[in-house]
TrEMBL record:
Keyword Nucleotide-binding carried by entry: no
SUPFAM superfamilies per UniProt: Cytochrome P450
Family to which the UniProt record says this protein belongs: Belongs to the cytochrome P450 family.
Keyword list, A-Z: Heme, Iron, Metal-binding, Monooxygenase, Oxidoreductase
Name of this protein: Cytochrome P450
Pfam families the UniProt entry points to: p450
Length: 404
C-alpha cells in the first residue's frame, strides 16, 4: 500500500512538472517524450503558472486557425520592449502590415532567388572543403547553416555587404530573445542590440529614400511614404524579417543534417536520389521542427475538442508535439523521407499567422541539403552535436562533420 501511495505521489509530481521539464536537460534536448505524456493526459495540460498547453494536433490546428483566438488579448498592444511587428499583432494591424511584407515572399518572387541561393551554397561548401582539407573536419552550423540564411535575407532586404557582419551580430542577439530572457546580462545585450539595429535600419531608410534600389527596404520606405506603414512600425517590421530570416532556417538545415546522420539508410536514399531533398526538408519540419511552440489567448469563452476554455486563457501551442501526434502521422516518431502523410505538419504554424517566409525557408534548405548529398556523399559526424539552450527555437549550435 505504501509503495502504491509513493508511486501515486511520484506520478502526480511528474505530471505537475511535465511542462517545466521542457526547459531543462534532458527534456530540453529531447522534448518529444514529454509532449507525448502531455498529449496522453487529454486535450489540455495545465502548467504550474495556470496556463494551458496542448500537444494534440487537432486542438493546435483549431486554435491556430480560429478567429476566437489571437496573439494578444483583444484590444491590447504587445509589450513595447520586444515589438515583433505583425507576428505580435491581431487584425486589423496584422492584416495591414502583413500585406505590405507578403508580396516579397510570394512563390514567384522566391523562385527568382534560386540561382543566387545555389551559388551561395556552392561558395559555402567550397569553404567547408577547404576547412576540412586543413583541419580534417568542419562545423556545419557556422560554415553552412548560419551564413546561408544571413546572406539571403540581407540580400533580400538590401542591407549593403559592408554592413552584413554588424547586422548579423545584432540580429543574432535580438533573435536570442525569441526563447525568452535568461538573465539580466542577457536582457542588457538584447536591449543594446535592439538600439543598434534601430540605428542601422534608420540610416538605411534614409539612404534608400534618397536612392531607392531593387530591394525590400526600398519597398517598405515607399509604403511608409504612402502612409501604409506608420514611422514607428518600420524598425519592428524590418527587425521581424531579419530575425525570422536568421534564427529559423539555420535550425532547419542543422536539424535536417542531424536527423539524416542519425538515420544512415535515409541519408543513403538521399545520396542515391538527391531529388528527395525536398522530402527530407518536409520530414525534418515535421519530425524535428525549428519552432517548437507558439502561444495564443482566447478572446471569448469557447471550447476546443469539447473542452471548455474561459475568455483570456493563454495556451502554449506545442507545434513540435502536434507534429508527432499518432492520430495524424503513422509511426509518428519515425523519421521517414518516403512517408505520404506528412503534409499536414504545423511547423510553419497555420491560419493568419502562418509563416510568410515559408517558400524562402524551403528553397534555402532544399538547395543546401541537395548540394550536400551531391557533393559530400560520405558525410558523417566528426564530434558531438551541441544543441542550443532554448525551448521555443530548436537546433544545433555545433555540428562537427567530415566528408572525405
Ligand atoms: C511566422 C516558422 C522561416 C518570416 C512564423 C510562424 C512560424 C514560423 C511557426 C508562426 C508563429 C505563430 O503562429 O505564432 C518558421 C520556420 C522557418 C521560418 C520553421 C524556417 C525553417 C522564416 C523566414 C522568414 C520568416 C526565412 C522571412 C524572412 C516570418 C514572419 C512571420 C513568421 C514575418 C510572421 C507571420 C505573421 O504573424 O503573420 N514562422 N519560419 N520565417 N515567419 Fe517564419
Amino acid at each position: 500500500l505504501y509503495l502504491g501511495e509513493a508511486r501515486g505521489a511520484y506520478d502526480a509530481y511528474v505530471r505537475r512538472n511535465l511542462f517545466a521539464r521542457l526547459r531543462y536537460a534532458p527534456g530540453r534536448d529531447d522534448p518529444y517524450p514529454i509532449y507525448e505524456q502531455i498529449r496522453a493526459g487529454g486535450t489540455f495540460y495545465t502548467t504550474a503558472m495556470g496556463n494551458l498547453a496542448t500537444a494534440d494536433h487537432a486542438a493546435c490546428k483549431e486554435i491556430l486557425r480560429s478567429r476566437r483566438w489571437g496573439v494578444q488579448p483583444e484590444g491590447e498592444d504587445p509589450p513595447p520592449e520586444f515589438d515583433l511587428s505583425f507576428l505580435d499583432r491581431n487584425p486589423p494591424d496584422h492584416t495591414r502590415l502583413r500585406r505590405i511584407a507578403a508580396p516579397a515572399f510570394s512563390p514567384r518572387r522566391i523562385a527568382e532567388l534560386r540561382t543566387g541561393v545555389e551559388k551561395t551554397v556552392e561558395r559555402l561548401l567550397d569553404d567547408a572543403e577547404r576547412t576540412e582539407a586543413t583541419t580534417g573536419r568542419f562545423d556545419l552550423v557556422p560554415t553552412l547553416a548560419a551564413p546561408l540564411p544571413i546572406a539571403v535575407i540581407c540580400d533580400l532586404l538590401g542591407i549593403p555587404d559592408a554592413d552584413t557582419a554588424t547586422f548579423s551580430r545584432y540580429g543574432a542577439a535580438l533573435g536570442s530573445a525569441l526563447s525568452g530572457i535568461r538573465s539580466l546580462g542577457h536582457a542588457r545585450a538584447v536591449m543594446e542590440a535592439d538600439a543598434a539595429i534601430e540605428r542601422l535600419f534608420t540610416d538605411l531608410f534614409e539612404r534608400r529614400r534618397r536612392e531607392p534600389a531593387d530591394d525590400l527596404v526600398s519597398e517598405l520606405v515607399a509604403a511608409e511614404d504612402a502612409e501604409q506603414v506608420r514611422p514607428a512600425e518600420m524598425v519592428p517590421l524590418c527587425s521581424l524579417l531579419l530575425v525570422a530570416g536568421f534564427e529559423t532556417t539555420v535550425n532547419l538545415v542543422g536539424n535536417a543534417v542531424n536527423a539524416l546522420l542519425d538515420h544512415p539508410e535515409q541519408w543513403g536514399a538521399l545520396v542515391d536520389d538527391p531529388g528527395l531533398a525536398g522530402a527530407a526538408v518536409q520530414e525534418t519540419l515535421r519530425w524535428d521542427g525549428p519552432v517548437q511552440r507558439t502561444t495564443r489567448v482566447s478572446f471569448d469563452d469557447t471550447e476546443v475538442g469539447g473542452t471548455p476554455v474561459a475568455r483570456g486563457r493563454w495556451v502554449n501551442v506545442l507545434i513540435g508535439g502536434a507534429d508527432r501526434d499518432p492520430a495524424v502521422f503513422a509511426h509518428a516518431d519515425r523519421f521517414d523521407l518516403t512517408r505520404t502523410d506528412g503534409g499536414d505538419h504545423l511547423a510553419f504554424s497555420s491560419g493568419i499567422h502562418h509563416c510568410v517566409g515559408r517558400p524562402l525557408a524551403e528553397l534555402e534548405a532544399t538547395v543546401a541539403i541537395r548540394q550536400l548529398a551531391e557533393r559530400m556523399p560520405s558525410l558523417r559526424r566528426a564530434g558531438a552535436v551541441r544543441r542550443r539552450n532554448a525551448t521555443v527555437i530548436r537546433g544545433p549550435v555545433a555540428l562537427p562533420v567530415a566528408c572525405r
